[in-house]
Design a protein that fits this description.
Blueprint lengths: L1 H26 L12 E5 L4 H9 L7 E5 L7 H5 L3 E4 L11 H17 L4 E6 L6 H4 L1 H4 L3 E6 L8 H9 L11 H10 L4 E5 L9 E3 L5 E3 L25 H24 L3 E4 L10 E2 L7
Helix pairs in contact: 8-9
Length: about 290
């Protein structure tokens, strides 16, 4: 029986590897990421705990590069922290075939990035952004912003093959959360140590199914903790997801972190989770001293 299971897994990994090769050929484009300017990178997730982190441990950011994500530029903290790197990998932001509220949020983010960025910053976008004139022109409208790209192509198959693809920026684990491309980028930029703050990932606490079978999730961020309300999780900016789809999405993210942690060790990078109360169980925890 064990031999049959071995053959089954061998065939499965072979098929996944072949499928990935096809996806890379069709979807991935040549790209280079900038080299790390410091040894340490702090990835600032937008989770509720980031507010407390910045209040109690802001001095920890000294001498380190910072990386913001998604709607970080919509907050006043953006101009205070002045992140050297910024990652956006939301496919809904590259297409106009989305609901009106998504279009409005995208335009607000674009305006804030253009108007607020008064320092040199690498804006790392999913490769699909190259097809959007609005995103391509952002560097023309603000010369402080340098555009870089990362391939969000899902990579699966044999471990050695996956790591080969990650290292050459051909793809990554399925990027169902912006933390995934942020960590892959940080590793490939050759940071020696990556610290993760504000990555609560505590969605399971705020997930429920209404009487009409609609699934709602209250996605809380450090900037909207008092105003966040239950909402559906949309598919590419439209419709909504069912419970099994949401849980599968969560599973892929949490599983991906174990893969990323192992890849980081291969590249001589250490990842530390400094998010208090984080649900992520893949990375080494590091508790910062009180009132650092």
């Amino acid at each position: 029986m064990s031999f049959l299971l071995f053959i089954q897994e061998l065939l499965r990994q072979t098929l996944l590897s072949v499928a990935t090769i096809i996806k890379v050929i069709l979807l991935s484009k040549p790209t280079n990421l900038p080299k790390a300017e410091h040894d340490d990178l702090v990835v600032l997730g937008n989770g509720p705990s980031l507010k407390t982190f910045l209040k109690e441990h802001k001095s920890f950011l000294g001498g380190k590069s910072c990386l913001g994500v998604n709607h970080f530029a919509d907050t006043s903290v953006f101009t205070d922290i002045k992140p050297a790197y910024y990652v956006i990998n939301v496919p809904e932001f590259w297409t106009d075939e989305v609901d009106a509220d998504v279009l409005k949020k995208r335009q607000t983010l674009l305006d804030n990035l253009i108007q607020k960025t008064t320092w040199q910053m690498h804006l790392i976008l999913g490769m699909g952004a190259k097809k959007s004139e609005k995103w391509r022109r952002i560097a023309e409208q603000n010369p402080n912003i340098r555009l870089d790209y990362i391939n969000p192509t899902p990579v699966e198959g044999f471990k050695s093959f996956r790591f080969f693809c990650y290292r050459r920026n051909c793809g990554m684990p399925r990027p169902h959360n912006v933390l995934i491309p942020s960590l892959i980028a940080g590793i490939n930029m050759r940071f020696k140590r990556i610290y993760i703050a504000g990555a609560d990932h505590s969605w399971l606490e705020d997930l429920f199914v209404a009487d009409d079978n609609t699934v709602y999730l209250t996605q809380r961020h450090f900037y909207d903790m008092q105003t966040a309300r239950p909402d559906v999780m949309k598919k590419m900016g439209k419709n909504h997801r069912h419970l099994h789809e949401i849980l599968h999405k969560f599973m892929l993210s949490f599983r991906a972190y174990f893969d990323i942690n192992e890849y980081a060790h291969k590249r001589k990078t250490r990842i530390y989770n400094i998010t208090k109360g984080s649900f992520i169980d893949a990375f080494e925890r590091l508790k910062l001293p009180d009132n650092e």
